[in-house]
Design a protein that fits this description.
Distance between the termini: 71 Å
CATH architecture of the largest domain: 4-Layer Sandwich
Number of helices: 7
CATH topology of the largest domain: Purple Acid Phosphatase, chain A, domain 2
CATH superfamily of the largest domain: Metallo-dependent phosphatases
Largest sheet: 6 strands, mixed
Number of domains: 3
Helix content: 10-25%
Structural class: mainly beta
Length: 518
């Protein structure tokens, strides 16, 4: 099956005109249809599907009673169907959804990495096949923050560390939140082969390291992405949830005065798509925005938030920063809704870019700079409700915190000795408490600091006998760290420190550490 997953059907009118930007413009027509025999082609007797949304990346239209749509296109347009609930687009042999048609009559410009070859004239009918599938009210989705391999060895680390435990998952689908690779776009193919082994459809968000830096403009920085993954922004429904995938990277090519660089933004065309897309989504449906750079850094943040705030139930997810953090946006952040908007900056699958000392299997520990082990996010949706669960790699799922206290403490220093708890998925809505030897629970204070274990690794890296492996990035302030002190009067000997936390979803997690008083 072709990458576009569409069929050229019966004849229809193709109108020509001139676009405001000077690019030749036409009107594309086609059908969204029930692919009864699942062969990707519209055969006689296969009915069109009414009320299915289709977009050209700007406008969004619904198909008529016969399943027909009509949209303007220019010579650089991607048409795509917005998958409705209870239906699925084709997926290819690598479990990548194929829901689009690329119209580039002359192909992509010549850049460092290959783009889309010439597609030729606009087909007479651009059709999109769908097949029905069961989509329950309650379902789970796997979210990877940056996978970001720089070479084939890193892809092997990802395979052993993250992918293998997920093979056979019952999640509905997965998604990588940008920076699939680390600048070497030729690695996309091998990466896709590995992630395909998980066995579920896999959607992708573009990141700043997935662009072709040889492009002079943002419009062409995604040409290689389009060749492999299709549109850089799009949307789809699954069950009762509407997902919007955003491309929040704007590339500025090199000039004599400045090196090429990117900024966080959407651009007018993408904002127009979001506006038109959300206008057709019921206001009581949960809307989930996915992006690479956190929403707080997007230039058009206020405009975007205003569009999303028309819906009662919202969530947004990002990666990029290589720390994990839950944000709750209010009026000071440009959020106009009554209740704060929850934005989760997710753990990265690559942690700190596959750096750090290797374990006995040769996999770097690659802890993130806030002390959080690498891993993934499991999101469970149930109607308007959702839960996000941090899942650490190479550790039990219950490993949700690290507790720091010296191994041994002099008896006369007990009351002044700090205990630090790094609750990896903690937030300002978490409660964190500590007790020693089953004594009374005492609340700990949230106090952003550097993670003590990560700080110790960085000191060792700068010492005379540094640990093996590539050096970790510089330490950052951990936003999810809580602080308390050992209680006075502990007797000489071993004692058990226990920390419990209740997260923003009401779930309770525990951790323990043994300390010796001397």
């Amino acid at each position: 099956m072709s990458r576009s997953c569409l069929i050229i059907g019966v004849s229809a009118a193709v109108l020509s005109c001139c676009s405001p930007a000077g690019r030749a413009q036409q009107t594309a027509v086609g059908f969204v249809f029930h692919d009864l025999n699942d062969n990707g082609r519209r055969d006689p007797g296969e009915p069109g599907l009414p009320g299915v949304r289709v977009s050209n990346g700007r406008q969004v239209v619904g198909t008529d009673a016969a399943g027909r749509y009509e949209l303007p296109v220019d010579d650089d347009t991607i048409l795509f169907v917005i998958k409705p609930s209870g239906w699925m687009t084709p997926i290819d042999e690598l479990n990548l959804p194929r829901f689009y048609y690329i119209h580039k009559p002359g192909g992509s410009p010549k850049l460092k990495y290959p783009g889309v070859p010439p597609t030729g004239p606009l087909p007479e009918s651009v059709d999109f096949p769908l097949r029905p599938q069961a989509e329950p009210q309650r379902f789970s989705v796997i979210f990877f923050g940056d996978t970001q391999p720089a070479d084939m060895q890193d892809i092997a680390h990802l395979a052993h560390d993250v992918v293998e435990p997920l093979i056979g998952t019952d999640a509905a689908f997965g998604m990588t939140l940008g920076d699939l690779v680390h600048d070497k776009l030729e690695l996309h193919a091998s990466l896709n082969e590995v992630i395909a082994q998980i066995g579920v459809p896999w959607y992708n968000v573009p990141g700043n390291h997935d662009m072709d830096y040889s492009a002079a403009t943002d419009r062409h920085a995604d040409e290689n992405w389009e060749l492999t993954y299709g549109p850089p922004y799009y949307s789809f429904d699954y069950g009762p949830v509407h997902f919007v995938v955003l491309d929040d990277i704007i590339w500025h090519g090199a000039t004599p005065e400045r090196k090429g660089h990117y900024v966080a933004g959407l651009g007018e065309e993408q904002l127009e798509f979001v506006r038109n897309d959300l206008a057709l989504v019921p206001e009581d449906r949960l809307v989930v925005l996915t992006m690479h750079i956190p929403i707080t850094e997007i230039a058009e943040r206020k405009e975007l938030l205003a569009l999303v705030a028309r819906h009662r139930y919202t969530l947004s997810l990002s990666a990029h920063t290589h720390i994990q953090e839950h944000l709750f946006l209010d009026a000071d952040d440009g959020w106009p809704g009554r209740e704060p908007h929850h934005h989760a900056n997710c753990v990265t699958a690559c942690g700190s870019w596959w750096r750090g000392a290797p374990d006995e299997f040769g996999i770097p520990h690659t802890a993130m700079a806030d002390g959080t082990p690498n891993g993934w996010t499991l999101a469970t949706f149930d109607g308007h409700d959702y839960e996000l669960t941090y899942v650490p790699a190479r550790r039990p799922a219950e490993f949700q915190m690290s507790i720091y206290c010296p191994d041994s403490v002099p008896a006369d220093k007990v009351g002044e000795t700090e205990v630090l708890a790094n609750v990896f998925a903690g937030s300002r809505r978490s409660t964190v408490e500590m007790r020693v030897d089953a004594g009374p629970w005492v609340a700990l204070k949230q106090e952003p600091r550097e993670d003590p274990y990560y700080a110790a690794i960085k000191r060792a890296e700068e010492g005379n006998t540094p640990p093996p492996g590539r050096k970790l990035p510089r330490i950052t302030t951990c936003p999810h760290l809580w602080v308390g002190r050992l209680p006075e009067g502990l007797a000489v000997g071993a004692h058990v420190i226990e920390v419990r936390t209740t997260d923003l979803f009401g779930r309770r997690w525990h951790g323990r550490r043994i300390v010796r008083i001397e």
